[in-house]
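The instructor's notes for this session suggest beginning with a concrete chain rather than abstract definitions. Hand out the sequence below and ask the class to guess, before any prediction is shown, which regions might be ordered.
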Amino acid sequence: MNWVVQSGAGIRVEWGQAGARALGPYSAALVVVDVLSFTTTVSVAVDAGTAVLPYPWRDSGAEEFAARHDAALAVGRRATSPERPWSLSPTTLRGATAPRRLVLPSPNGSAIAAAVSGVPVVAACLRNSTAVAAWLARQGWGTTDRPISIIPAGEQWPGQDAARPAIEDWIGAGAVVSALAEMQAGPLSAEAWAAKALYEGITDVPSLISQCASGRQLADMGFGDDVAVATEMDTTTTVPVLAHGMFVDGTQGCFG
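After discussion, reveal the predicted structure:
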């Protein structure tokens, strides 16, 4: 089913874990985008020298997984303590002492990263979209023969086991596509063109994201500063790449 995997395109975009599972085997690299949660927090952690281990859920298995890998375990945004100051909040994480390794559970971006095997996985957000695109292009990826699949993670509907497409992740995917197109990668699938057009058509990305459903949710929870961190546009050159089960900085020669 060529239509499922957007065959013929060098840059492909599809939603969520199902999209990652469908496109991953046909990709040279897979890029996860979870702007208001996982991938922004990964970028902040890797900036500080922390290796991040993805894990789908914050449950008893996460405790065992963290212990087995000699890693700290992130807790819920509202559950931090002096003993465990790490969470999916990039603002909170930035203010804490950086652990050497951190298990960062989330049902969206982290679950996607943990579910994909056999293909390089990169964590992208608005803080590093241009750096991610440049790193991917240096690997020679983003062609018909070696396509890149970009996966906006989406969110969860409150109280439901159902995915919600999230505009901030579509915008983040578009930022990566736009940068790749500037570097002559492609051709773009229709989905990639749509993401690129959305991103390039927004005059004030931070303002729009602060007013979207996910941004308003974080503000209502008291984590409006996380939205500000997530919309620090192209402020880091760190490229988190999943190597040996951990996100580390791919620009430091850990991969490729």
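Then share the key points. The longest strand covers residues 29-33. The chain has a mean pLDDT of 95.
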